[in-house]
């Protein structure tokens, strides 16, 4: 069984992530195969559009293969750096793909799953969609262009999503600019059939689409904007307490202090960067710094390996993470890849 099923059917380039037992978590090999296919299809007149989906019933993609990242971090290796370089190049290629690129974002869409979907042309969510960038819970910072997308969400909703790691519904994802339309999950086969029959993508999706309903985040925008507009995590927590949102404050306090501060800085910096490529280059530097740090391996250990849900962060408190530590995450290394280059 291949980890990703890549084929062309009646002019449609099909990409099906095919690790259903792992909720289709991305491996380095999968990323390279997808990127190579996109290079080929961009120049192939026989391919008129691309559709990406996930095998199984649980979701499109739960993110990257973090067990591999854990082993690499513990060993002091560089395999994760090569994976991220190829993944971020793929994310940029999706965003500027010259033909319609449709993503079926059914079920779980987390981390790297956002990267293969939310940069596309037409982003379809369902009543089962649970979209999240939960990286701060494992000592990492939202990547795959996540800080680009979240920094451009309305008000401070993206900051809220990044610092809490909360899962967004279909309506939330659309309101935040991470998706476009809701199609009921049981209508996806009919939508795909229409696309294979030659229907124009946006019109086909609109035919099957349903109203997204109310966004829970949009309804809470007043207090979220008031609290998360602060430029220091400590101040955000203080404002949450003042607003009576103690549960949200406690949720944030359980995350990696270093990852929280770096994430907030990354979001603020991303707002001022001109394009997705420049943000992806920033994310590469940040991810590389996280790989060398303590909290990434520890966070994965606690959540995925030992599953004790009791990470021992170091530094353990926000006050111990000074500005120099945060700034160092953005300072190096040099980018060892060109986002505008071809597949290598």
TrEMBL record:
InterPro entries: ClpP/crotonase-like_dom_sf, ECH_dom, HIBYL-CoA-H
Domain Enoyl-CoA hydratase/isomerase: 12-330
EC number: 3.1.2.4
Enzyme class: hydrolase
Catalytic activity line of the entry: 3-hydroxy-2-methylpropanoyl-CoA + H2O = 3-hydroxy-2-methylpropanoate + CoA + H(+)
Keywords assigned by UniProt, alphabetized: Hydrolase
Coiled-coil positions: none
Protein name: 3-hydroxyisobutyryl-CoA hydrolase
């Amino acid at each position: 069984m291949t980890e990703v099923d890549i084929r062309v059917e009646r002019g449609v380039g099909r990409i099906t992530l095919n690790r259903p037992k792992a909720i289709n978590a991305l491996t380095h090999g999968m990323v390279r195969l997808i990127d190579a296919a996109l290079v080929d299809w961009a120049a192939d007149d026989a391919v008129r559009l691309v559709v990406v989906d996930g095998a199984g019933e649980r979701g499109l993609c739960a993110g990257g293969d973090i067990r591999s990242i854990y082993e690499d971090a513990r060993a002091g290796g560089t395999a994760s750096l090569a994976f991220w370089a190829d993944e971020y190049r793929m994310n940029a290629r999706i965003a500027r793909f010259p033909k319609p690129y449709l993503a079926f974002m059914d079920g779980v869409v987390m981390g790297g799953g956002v990267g293969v979907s939310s940069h596309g042309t037409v982003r379809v969510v369902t009543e089962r969609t649970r979209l999240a960038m939960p990286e701060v819970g494992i000592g990492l910072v939202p990547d795959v262009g996540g800080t680009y997308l979240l920094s451009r969400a309305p008000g401070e909703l993206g900051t809220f999503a990044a610092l809490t790691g909360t899962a967004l519904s279909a309506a939330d994802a659309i309101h935040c600019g991470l998706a476009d339309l809701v199609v009921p999950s049981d209508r996806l086969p009919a939508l795909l059939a229409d696309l294979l029959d030659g229907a124009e993508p946006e019109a086909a999706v609109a035919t099957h689409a349903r109203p997204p309903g109310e966004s829970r985040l949009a309804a809470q925008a007043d207090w979220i904007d008031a609290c998360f507009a602060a430029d220091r995590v400590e101040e955000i927590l203080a404002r949450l307490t003042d607003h009576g949102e103690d549960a949200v404050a406690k949720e944030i306090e359980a995350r990696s202090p270093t990852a929280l501060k770096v994430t907030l800085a990354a979001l603020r910096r991303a707002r001022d960067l001109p394009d997705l490529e420049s943000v992806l280059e920033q994310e590469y530097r940040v991810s590389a710094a996280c790989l060398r740090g303590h909290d990434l391996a520890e966070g994965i250990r606690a959540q995925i390996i030992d599953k004790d849900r009791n990470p021992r962060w170091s530094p353990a408190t926000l006050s111990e993470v000074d500005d120099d530590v945060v700034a160092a995450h953005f300072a190096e290394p040099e980018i060892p890849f060109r986002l505008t280059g071809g597949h290598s």
